[in-house]
Amino acid sequence: MARQLLSAAHAEQDAIAPRRLLLPRAAWGLLLPGVALLAAEIGVRTGAIPANLLPAPSDIAATVADLSRHGLAGHVLASSVRVAIGFTGGALLAIVLGAAVGLNSKVEALLDPTFQALRAIPSLAWVPLLLLWLGIDEAPKLVLIGIGAFFPVYMGVASGIRDVDRKLIDAARLYRLSRPALARRVLLPAALPAIFTGLRNGLSLAWMFMVAAELIAASQGLGYLLSDGRETSRADIVLAAIMLLAVLGKASDSLMQRLENRLLAWRDSYTTI
After folding, report:
1. Tally of domains in the chain
2. Does any domain span residue 52?
3. Which end of the chain, C or N, has fewer beta carbons within 10 A?
4. What would the pLDDT profile of 112-159 be if each residue is shown by its tens digit?
């Protein structure tokens, strides 16, 4: 019976392999955006969609090209640097505190209720407080981005450590591993999948909080472009900034996913066909 199942699985993989060659995996990810862009272009050109509300994708591309000649690279760089600094600071703090909460029940009882309450506060609610405390320079922007990145990473680290299979811990104790060795050789590797999930969620939220952060008296950045497009009633600028945010967010997430696949190559987990 087992041999029959293996033979059937190999036959199914052989049948699917040519289709994978004809349509690569990356092409599937571009299929839906491509159809949406084509539909929007046709809808605007035929008059079914008002151009002042939803400009044609070709017009948005022309806007991006025009912005690139007038300082778009500076806006992208400013936003990317803010996200990198804010995410790094928030994620590092979250890893330390999340590990402390996951490893010690007393620390969990002390810190976790407060963090869960703070996690429910909307991003814009922090803006006036940060303005009062830190002024209107870069500091409040970076802190706000760090707040956005902190909670998903904290949840991933704490839950990942708490959810480690107890059998692994019991086996490690049979080998008389010390607590540092137990954390380094058992808990951390077993929790890494959840930690990377938290890091990826935190990175996406860092981009979201960056838009709110750049509403704090920013003169550069994609959030500034969004605000400028709204104030000048330029839907093409607004949509261009949104598309750039989507591209940058996807690119950074892909880098994080590639790092995850490299560090967790030892996993023997289910992969979809």
Report:
1. 1
2. no
3. N
4. 999 999 999 988 888 888 888 988 888 999 999 999 999 999 999 999
